[in-house]
Amino acid sequence: MAKTAVITGGASGIGKQTAIRLAQMAENIVIVDMNIDNAGELIEQLRQSGNNPKAVSLDVTDFDAVKQTANEIKKEFGSIDILVNCAGIRKDGLLAMMKEEAFDRVIAVNLKGTFNMIRHCAPIMMKQKSGSIINISSVAGTMGNAGQTNYSASKAGVIGITKSVARELVSRGVRCNAVAPGFVGTEMTAEFADNRDVLDTIPMKRMAEPSEVAELIAFLASDSSSYITGQVINIDGGMDI
Ligand code: NAP
């Protein structure tokens, strides 16, 4: 049967490269994003490469809307085989200045959004007795980071979700892992792209390409990693050694 991969935050950055990479492994590619207006070119590219792509506009913080989307995907494609939770935001600030809204929204998108997607896709995977879930954490979640209390808490929480879900679903044939990138060259880090002081904090002295992270995600989605679950794999140029 044709495989279906669902990628949140799939219209840009790491999610977009992941969609392109997973198109080599899954026929149906579902791009889920807050704003899919700029996904047209990606959808066309996926169609040209012989895939069956679909773009869905969805706020991952909305529990009921996520449920409806998961059910619609199952109805249209018959299965959900791979789920990649890439949707994420940051609203940085020093602890003493951080507004309540900045904490709540980052937790809502990065942590609750990841929960919502797994909550509604996992039952479909459990029934199939197969599936691979990949969550995007961060070195901010594994190491902490000054100025990112909210983001760091959300990404550490993603690790908790990953390990708990992995334990709970292992007997149902569903795996759940996380990747923890350092700096990746996307919209999210555009302001640091030419900042030598920031790049010098990375032992490899450069940001990752989104395609390098996509390659790791593809490995965790594939049968090549069939004995791996509940793990957090850093891809950070040596930041968190
Ligand atoms: P990006 O290019 O900004 O992509 C994030 C995507 O998520 C955007 O398309 C964004 O849509 C979407 N999104 C935001 N809120 C959403 C919501 N409520 N519902 C659905 N979609 C939503 O950033 P990226 O660098 O690729 O980040 C991807 C993931 O990697 C994030 O979880 C991020 O925290 C993580 N990460 C990134 C880095 C890095 O250095 N770039 C490092 C470690 C971890 P809009 O653009 O419309 O807001």
Give your account of this protein's structure.
This protein has 241 residues and is of the alpha/beta class. The protein has eight helices and seven strands, in the order E-H-E-H-E-H-E-H-E-H-H-E-H-H-E. A seven-stranded parallel sheet has the order 3-2-1-4-5-6-7, sandwiched between helices. It is globular. 48% of the residues are buried. Bound molecules: NADP nicotinamide-adenine-dinucleotide phosphate (NAP). NADP nicotinamide-adenine-dinucleotide phosphate binds next to helix 1 and helix 4.
In short:
By secondary structure, the chain is an alpha/beta fold. It is built from eight helices and seven strands; from the N terminus they run E-H-E-H-E-H-E-H-E-H-H-E-H-H-E. The protein starts with a strand and ends in a 6-residue tail after the last strand.
Query: Would you count the extended β strands for me?
Result: 7
Shape: globular
**Element string (H = helix, E = strand):** EHEHEHEHEHHEHHE
* CA distance, first residue to last residue: 41 Å
Number of helices: 8
What is the percent of helical residues? 40-55%
> Helix/strand-derived class?
alpha/beta
**What value does the Rg take, in angstroms?**
17 Å
Average pLDDT, all residues = 98
Unique bound compounds: NADP nicotinamide-adenine-dinucleotide phosphate
Unreliable parts: none
Strand content: 15-25%
Main-sheet strand order equals: 3-2-1-4-5-6-7
Largest sheet: 7 strands, parallel
Key structural traits:
binds NADP nicotinamide-adenine-dinucleotide phosphate; single chain; 241 residues; 8 helices; seven-stranded parallel β-sheet; globular; 16% strand; alpha/beta
